[in-house]
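Researcher: Sequence recovery benchmark, item below. Answer with residues only.
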């Protein structure tokens, strides 16, 4: 799996990398248990600062898409579809907020649709 970064894009490099990993996991190009390149190695390959790649990996780990195994490296999460798990977790958190706020389902769904449209 090769990753790329478009220097002319409005999206920050760490986010471009994060989304490429998510997309690759979602469509099966990166299977559960696949090892990702080292932070330093990928940073060198893409001409990025190591902190940029580390940020992408940290966010992917927080979302459950990858898991860091110390010196062994970073791997695609083996516990089911990590993208689906992260999506379901976010949806559950949102549903809890909607309930606490007393917002109707229709209003909550409309708010999500607006937020997604705003992201392009």
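Model:
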């Amino acid at each position: 799996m090769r990753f790329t970064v478009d220097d002319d894009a409005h999206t920050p490099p760490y986010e471009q990398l994060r989304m490429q990993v998510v997309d690759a996991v979602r469509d099966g190009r990166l299977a559960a248990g696949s090892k990702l390149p080292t932070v330093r190695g990928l940073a060198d390959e893409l001409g990025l600062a190591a902190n940029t790649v580390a940020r992408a990996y940290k966010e992917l780990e927080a979302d459950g898409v990858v898991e860091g195994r110390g010196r062994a490296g970073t791997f695609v999460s083996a516990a089911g579809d990590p993208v689906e798990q992260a999506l379901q977790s976010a949806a559950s958190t949102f549903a809890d907020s909607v309930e606490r706020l007393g917002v109707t389902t229709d209003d909550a769904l409309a708010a999500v649709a607006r937020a997604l449209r705003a992201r392009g």
